[in-house]
Specification:
mainly alpha
């Protein structure tokens, strides 16, 4: 029971941070390219990730680290940023609300996880809430942007299932730090020749904070939570991120939230609570 409680708390903390950082990343894309933002966020996260991993177990095979890197870091960040560059932060948040459905499907296929009746009902309710959100507010500004957002969602679902499948073979910090380091090393040659001027000091501070919180602390919380709860249930928590992101998008970017979107958010929260209840 205590392990389950810690896992749920860690997942809730992670998705809250991501809900805040998603709209803020949209701001950073006005001054940096999608790959630059991905590189900077992970580079500023490494000072948090590497010492924690070094204190614990830094051992993780490249056979596992590379798929985690390609799905949860390269795929997720690049596709999300490419989608954000072409759509609103609200659209990105709503599209990524489909992550639990993809996670549950992948978990059933790869891990043979069968969620119980209550968890299944919670997943269905959370998915219904996402549909209500999309029905009321989703306006696709770019079909290509929508495709990128869907690919980012699929990347994250795969990352979650991989983390759950190999949880006994690595620590949460190693599963975060080593793939992040590989991603930074891979991004470095790509962005080396890009122009870097033009961003204000405030934008740099924004990128640094999103890197430390969204790509450092939140990833550790997420992997810690995934190691303690089933992947399908963990995926439901990602439906809380759009609710947080919609609020932040409204406050920080002036994007509007309809009454239907608010109702959809309430349904999402109820579904997540049902799916994670004992």
């Amino acid at each position: 029971m205590r392990q389950d409680l810690r896992g749920n708390a860690a997942l809730a903390g992670a998705v809250t941070i991501w809900g805040v950082t998603l709209p803020l990343t949209k701001v950073a894309l006005d001054d940096f390219t999608p790959v630059q933002v991905a590189f900077l966020r992970l580079a500023f996260a490494l000072p948090i990730l590497l010492p924690l991993a070094w204190q614990g177990s830094f051992r993780i095979s490249l056979r596992l680290a590379i798929p985690l890197c390609l799905t949860g870091f390269v795929g997720y960040f690049v596709f999300t940023n490419l989608g954000l560059e072409r759509t609103s932060a609200s659209t990105a948040a709503l599209v990524q609300a489909s992550t639990p459905v993809l996670t549950a499907v992948l978990a059933a296929l790869v891990l043979a996880e069968r969620p119980g009746r209550k968890a299944t009902a919670g997943i269905a309710l959370a998915a219904a809430g996402a549909v209500v959100l999309a029905w009321g507010t989703l306006e696709v500004e770019s079909r290509l942007g929508l495709l990128f957002l869907l690919l980012s969602t699929l990347s994250w679902a795969a990352y979650t299932v991989l983390g759950r499948r190999f949880r006994a073979r690595h620590s949460a910090t190693a599963a975060t730090a080593v793939p992040a380091l590989l991603a930074v090393l891979g991004f470095a040659p790509v962005v080396a020749g890009d122009p870097w001027g033009g961003a204000s000091a405030g934008i740099w501070v924004l990128v640094i904070l999103t890197g430390i919180m969204g790509s450092g602390i939140a990833y550790i919380l997420w992997n810690s939570g995934v190691a303690r709860v089933p992947a399908a249930r963990a995926g439901v928590y990602t439906n809380l991120a759009p609710v947080v992101a919609l609020v932040v998008a409204r406050v920080a970017l002036g994007e509007t939230i309809s009454a239907r979107a608010a109702a959809g958010g309430a349904i999402v929260i109820l579904g997540a609570a049902l799916a994670t209840a004992r």
